[in-house]
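wait is this the right file?? whatever heres the structure
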């Protein structure tokens, strides 16, 4: 099975998944989209109303801002892979529950293994917590860190900049770092991501900026 076929199989599995309660309110699963050879994968938190109806990630106001931010660094939405830590919409856009995150974790791990991106960008605290479970996004945003061979950069979620205009410049500055990160990152080895552990050997802080 080639990478495109493997991602399509994940999408099919997401659309029929019933591993957690979110499937009861699902209109369409939102597995993610983008090229199988993308250099960057953006991981958000969960689908919202519009995503649930269309089956595509980041198609609302936060998605429009993401496209604008990508354009500011000479990239297009079609250049990157975009997904979420949960693939079905939490009712009322509430935070994902632990059991929901656990149910979707295998899908995300498989996507990371197939795409094997140069850079993983987490958008918001729930996707950040997959790699940095005890960190505060206000303290580590924009800082590239290797986690089990993968280069991960936590960013604020674009929605945060919409709700708090004071964060807009911070988000723009973080995005401005991405071209240099891509140029400087060696292709990470194809590995099966593991659950993060709470120990000092888990991460290696990089001083790229």
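ok assuming it is, sequence goes like this
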């Amino acid at each position: 099975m080639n990478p495109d076929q493997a991602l399509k199989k994940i999408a099919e599995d997401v659309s029929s998944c019933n591993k957690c309660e979110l499937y009861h309110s699902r209109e369409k699963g939102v597995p993610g989209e983008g090229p199988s050879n993308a250099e960057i994968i953006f991981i958000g938190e969960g689908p919202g109303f519009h995503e649930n109806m269309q089956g595509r990630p980041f198609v609302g106001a936060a998605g429009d801002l993401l496209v604008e931010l990508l354009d500011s660094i000479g990239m297009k939405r079609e250049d990157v892979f975009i997904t979420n830590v949960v693939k079905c919409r939490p009712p009322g856009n509430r935070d994902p529950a632990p059991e929901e995150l656990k149910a979707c974790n295998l899908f995300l791990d498989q996507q990371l293994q197939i795409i094997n991106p140069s850079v993983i960008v987490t958008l918001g605290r729930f996707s950040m917590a997959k790699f940095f479970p005890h960190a505060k996004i206000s303290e580590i945003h924009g800082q590239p860190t290797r986690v089990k061979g993968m280069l991960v950069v936590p960013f604020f979620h674009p929605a945060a900049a919409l709700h708090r205009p004071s964060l807009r410049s911070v988000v723009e500055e973080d995005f401005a770092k991405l071209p240099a990160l891509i140029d400087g990152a060696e292709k990470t080895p194809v590995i099966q991501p593991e659950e993060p552990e709470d120990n000092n050997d888990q991460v290696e802080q990089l001083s790229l900026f």
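Confidence is low (pLDDT under 50) at residues 187-209. so i think its the right one actually
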